[in-house]
Structures
1.
Amino acid sequence: MIKTESLKFSYDGRKYFDFPDINLDTGENLLIIGNSGIGKTTLLHLLAGILKPKSGSINVSGIEISKFSDTELDKFRGDNIGIVFQRPHFIYSLTINENLKLAQYLSPSKTSGDAEKILESLNINDKYQQKPNQLSEGEKQRVSIALALINSPNLILADEPTSSLDDFNCDNVIKLLKKQAKDHKAQLIVITHDARLKKHFKNNLNL
Amino acid sequence: MNIFKLSIKNLFYRPLSSLLSLLLLALGVSMISLLVLINSVVQDQMNNNLKGIDMVVGAKGSPLQLILSSVYHVDSPTGNISLKEARSIEKNPMVGNSVPLLYGDNYEGFRIVGTNEKFIELYNLSIENGSFWDDEFEVVVGKKIATKLNLKVGDTFVTSHGLRQTGESHADTPFTVVGITNFSNSVADQLILTSAESVWGVHGDHTHDDEEHDHDEEHDHDDDKEITAMLIKFNSPMNVIQFPRYINENTNLQSAVPSYEISRLFKLFGFGIETINLLAYLIIVVSGISIFITLFNSMKERKYDMALIRTLGGSRLQLSSMLVYEAIVLTISGFILGIILSRLGLVFISSLMESSFNYSLNSYGIFNDEFWLLAISILIGLMACLIPSIQVYKMDISKTLSNE
């Protein structure tokens, strides 16, 4: 369950972002769609606890996070939220396996998923011992999904996961994300300007 | 996987810049530690050999040379003095103990010193095997020589004239080893000791028909006998102020005070040592700067890595400690490498000294100064990672992630 109410944010204190309320029941996914510069990434960062709102409330799985301290937010994020970035990020000095192990270490209170199983379900279990640099772009994106899933999050946030993909791969990635979210009993929120994704989601929110 | 392991992996991910910082620190540390080692070992050895010697009397020349030759047995002697003059000094009431030294020959580059039982007392020597000499051409061999030349009691050898192996040999007067001393950790370990009479005997010019005369009779022949130097211990430490001057001004002899000459020698060295020391500290500071630059540059390369760590639940503190670990691991391993290098350097210098002076340095323990050096290294590491780790602590991950 994800719920926001009269969420407001400002970077400089002059220009305010006003976000529409979100009310998402457990098991439901959401597509947030809007043009560039409208505050999509800001909203994603607010939901992920990377940014703190100026006012309003954010409630993820019954936890009110808008008043959390930085340390509480770090812990909350590690335990409850998986983020799939537009461009995949890794710890480049570590192998894929070690990247996943580090993610587990950073969120110790959470019983994490089986790294091997997750890689298997993403069809990249043969890349276990490789460094991120050795992967193709498609493999990188799947590993970054594995990183988002490893700590069994309640909420998966995906930031423009398909914007650089052709139609065929776009379909594949969004289906993969939805399937993984379902398998891990997590809710999926995709933030994008990519109108092709509309058909995949029952719940759409236009910014 | 944890933050510390991550730091190690990060260091190996940038092997060249890690290696540069490591080598710079190791170089600085090894230079300082080598200086400390050599300084303390040399001073230890020098002071150990000075025990019980207040003054040295010998022929006119350089006082430092007199000390180096007759106390440390490294330089050539200044010349010989007549036994008669030496005896007259010995009789002075200010003189407590005196040890005559007589050079002439060497065996395989090791000096043969003609002396008497007072030398044995002075260096507190004891016999490991055999006995002390009691007849002419009997020698007691220092432990180090016995080991090196594989000499045993009962062996005989022929000496060469002078202090170098190339001198003409005295084939008609072979020496017999009657004893081998225990380790004394003094110059005596690298000397071959015998009676003064033996040295006079080898050189033939003072041999008499009645060689077996008693002590009183020997006095009659003192006029034409010579010794090389005499080590003197005063009855009262106060005498060291007047007596040497009295000898230098009123006799043909030269007197030198070892402690004074050695401190003069160290002062001469001191300037060079200070300069190298300063240079070494400079290298350590440069290594600190190198660590700083490495971390600072890597922060730009790694900003997404670090933002990822935060989004995965890592705290600001964990991120900062990652950089601190990297700097500290570099400095501590640089320090350890430096200490190892300095010990290797000591082995090298020791073998160098052994071949040219028959002196060796053997002290491989950790010195107090080196704990200071460790503290300084860690401090440099902490200073190098201070700014990067503060910046990482304050990093705005939202901004970093939006700039992709």
Note: Residues 145 and 151 of chain B are 8 Å apart (CA to CA).
2.
Amino acid sequence: MPSVSSLAEASELLASAAADGRRVRLGDDVTLDGMASVLEHEAGDLTCVVEAGLRLSPLQVALATHGQRVALDPPGDPTIGACLAANLSGPLRHRFGSPRDLVLGVTLVLGDGTVCNAGGKVVKNVAGYDLGKLVCGSRGKLALIARVSLRLHPLPAMSRTLIIETESTAGAVAALLRSQLQASALDVLHPGRVAVLFEGSERAVDAQIAAARALVGGDAADEDVWEEARRRQGEALGRLRFGPRDLRNTLSTLREAVVRPAAGVAYVPHRVSDVLPARVRRLNDAIKAALDPAGVLA
Amino acid sequence: MPLAPTVLAALEQAVESGALVTDPAQLATYDCDGLTGWRAQPACVVLPASTEEVQAVVRACAAADIPFVARGAGTGLSGGALPVADGVVVSLARMDRILEVDLESQRVVVQPGVTNLDVTRAVEAEGYFYAPDPSSQQVCTIGGNVAENSGGAHCLKNGFTVTHVTGLTVVLPTGEIVELGGKALDPDGPDLLGVFVGSEGTLGIATEVTLRVVRSPEAVTTLLAAFRSLDAAGAAVSAVVAAGITPAAMEVMDSLTIKAAEQAFRPDYPAGAKAVLLVELDGVAEQVADDTKAVRAVCEEQGAFEIREASSEAERALLWQGRKGAFAAMGRISPDYYVQDGVVPRTRLPEVLRRIEELSREHGLRVGNVFHAGDGNLHPLVLYDRAAGEAERAKELAELILAACLDAGGSLTGEHGIGVDKACAMPGMFSERDLDVFARLRRAFDPQGIANPGKVLPTPRLCGEVPGPYRVHPLERTGVAQRF
């Protein structure tokens, strides 16, 4: 499988595909394995700019030496570009959001080879259309994501996990969300368990664990449960969305699932069809036609 | 040129009786937003009361190819709600109902004319709040916040409007209604919510907004630290961040702003302070206590000569008073002022502030600096006297300040928007190709080009054939690799 190793190569590849009338499936027909560098890391600004072919694990290793991380922990070890294109997130989504909440700017290559930038590398910026968010979830159909500028977070001084085994996971979740505790991750491992991650100073983490136990019970546990949550999420075949209020009802229809209750997202072992309304689909088609009129990106 | 009678009739039919304004005296109140230097008289103002009425209005505009501009409270600072001369203004003022409070989901569904603060008021008794807090929050509307992706002092930790919008009903410029997102996050497909929020009324009109509200923190502490120099305050900001602390807010005022605030409100800031740093910490009690201790230590290390701490609501209000009233206070020491909204990477703050001081001296005009230091969002206030003929010089100075922000790798605007004010400056931040891609995206939503034309992107009519004052593009200067 061909891999491009520079922005210029990516642009040339798509331009020539457009000229020849060829279609290109990003990730299948071409990879960005050769574009895997950290271009900039301004530790004092808690920002970095990376090539989109960079995988999460080497990025996290590089950032950790500065006591920082990108607060994204999806299953596996996807590239940053894949995180955006497939809108991948993991348990930390609870507190830190999805890729769209962490992307500050992008360099894109359109289907005809046009290179364009949107956003920037500052954490606050409302100049121009936010194409960095637009391509999140676009599955490679709108543009090739070549470079990404990201917001970073400090690594916490410490973290501890609490597991609550209960028949009423929805009740435990409601109590935790209603409380003033600030969890970094809160998953329902359906059926029967709620996992909560607290991060911060040692004193604050201990206090939160104690307060959470007083509220909903449970026992301190090691961090393996997050590996389990990620693994099960990665093996899931479908994703359900629900209003967070409907957690109990949603769980009652499922045999097993990994659920992010505050987001209203459940990863389930069966396929779920895409539920975009027809009018949203039409708008997506119009955007696709505007950015990739020749339909190069399949 | 007035609208054709058939168009007026169509608009009249689109909305309830009395919801169409054509009287010139009444129209005059809509001729500008918070950026009062730009004015234009619309042909009419319509005040629809529902999504369907907005749709009917937009369809009437589309059928006649008449431009329309959506308007909330008109408090925007970049001319985003400036009418198109002889076009239609769509005021969302009548759509001011809170439709649903669903605290189990931590969501509130509102119409666009609801004010920002009313969202918090609807949920605060239950211990929740709506996090984005632009300083106009008592009057500015959620519809306007969505259009501008509004921020505020407390966005450092909680994020901007876009972080808190989970669903939208939008009337597209074609007249089609689309529903984006909902109460659940992570909708399928490209992030349309993310591109719509902050699109400044150019991609359609939001008629229903689902917002995420946040549980109030267990503890809040506000610290005020006084420094002998602006540099020292800036160094303290960097040191707080380096310590791994994410405050809820981190604000700096310089000596000129302190002076103005003292004259206006007597907040009684420490005597001799050349810069004041406000840091607000919130969260679980133990974390706030630990962070407070750490921030105090950092400030002392960086030379703070007095630190005050507020933990009651009343004490906190006192510390914030000078900061929140800073813009208004400038009126006491200068007949006119011009606010900028540039952003720089936090680590470049000291050098950019020094550059601003230089520029201020060169132009013989005072510049007050009050800024969201935590996210590098500067609000330099260029003081001038229009009557003394200083307006042109002030504008030039303001433009050079923005250029300095861009040179430092920053942005033209952190929260006020591009609007009409900075449209001609866009080529300083984006290449022609970038802008062309923006224009293509815009046409996908608005093929006729009738939704808030003349805003966000530079046009020859607005900017002349020669793009604005930022001719040298960073892309050309430093090569693609450095460009972002």
Note: The radius of gyration of chain B is 23 Å.
